[in-house]
Task: structure prediction
Amino acid sequence: MTKKIFISYKRVDIDKVLPIVNKINETYGPICWMDLDGIESSKQFESIICSAIDNVDLMLFMYSKTHKTIDLENDYTIKELNYANNKKILLVNLDGTELYNIFKFNFGSKNNIDARQPQQIDKLIKDLSSLLNVKPNSNIANENYIKGLDLYEEEKYEKAFMSFEIAAEQGHASAQFFLGVCYNNGYGVNQDYAQAVSWYRKAAEQGIASAQFNLALCYEDGVGVKQDYAQAVSWYRKAAEQGNASAQFNLGLCYYNGEGVKQDYAQAASWYRKAAEQGDASAQFALGFSYYNGKGVKQDYAQAVSWYRKAAEQGNASAQFNLGLCYYNGEGVKQDYAQAVSWYRKAAEQSHASAQFALGVSYYNGKGVKQDYAQAVSWYRKAAE
Result:
């Protein structure tokens, strides 16, 4: 489809820009052009950007606080603005920053669009129809996406795949994500990790957090793409900043282990906390572990117990075992062997080897439970195996 809108933006604002672009594309089809790779030279600007601007009817200039610190002579967004002086230009204010300098001169008296107001974005999308003489698509993409979801839930994967593919080819971001899932798992199509990565990337670049998370997993594990921890961190961060709890936890792990980023226990604990507060059991355990060991936070056994308990109550076996240890040693909680045994047992029944051994020790010594050598041997054997 012919591109009709040029998106001028600063890359630091991409997470604010993509949802707007995605909404426009889902309404009219892929009519927006935006540079996702970054311009590094004047030659690139002339061959890529100028050509793109020449072929569109409208520029959406995405303004933010970042523009208050730019070099007005060398910044590429200013060059884009100047080059497009014969085009219709609308300013979208991403964060409410007051217009200054050239922006105040060019746009100060106009009705600019406040991106913080959903109704203004909706009005912009509606007005594009008359501004560009385009009609909203017949919702074929969205209809196929919804149809695909229904078929997917019914486990009719071949038909679901076909519906997702139709929608994905038309630029529907969520359909692109699910198409990636289908390729990743071999649902309705031959399993193909490289294709999965390709579709995850398309959806991720449109701001779909789940796709950003899955793409990060692929980079971390080297599935469908060369292993690259730095790229994994980059995509985890994009998803994490959108509130994806799994990404927040994994980003915390990257900081904790120094994979793809400089090791930083405080940053690890910070990201664990964001995910833990959303109820992610693995993050709750990890935050408890950080408090217990004083890594990234001040050592605090009571806080460790609190977070272990939250994770343990969700069935996290490691948290159940560690909570048992806290009860056994009286760390952060009153010593209570019976409670220790109770939590050991919950973890042991999930095949947690250390918990099976600890439960065996409790039976052997008769601490928190009636002494029983046969039970001790039974749990030792499970741990040994």
Summary: The beta strands are 5-8, 32-33, 58-63, 88-93, 113-114. Residues 50 and 83 are 7 Å apart (CA to CA). The longest helix spans residues 14-28. The mean pLDDT is 91.
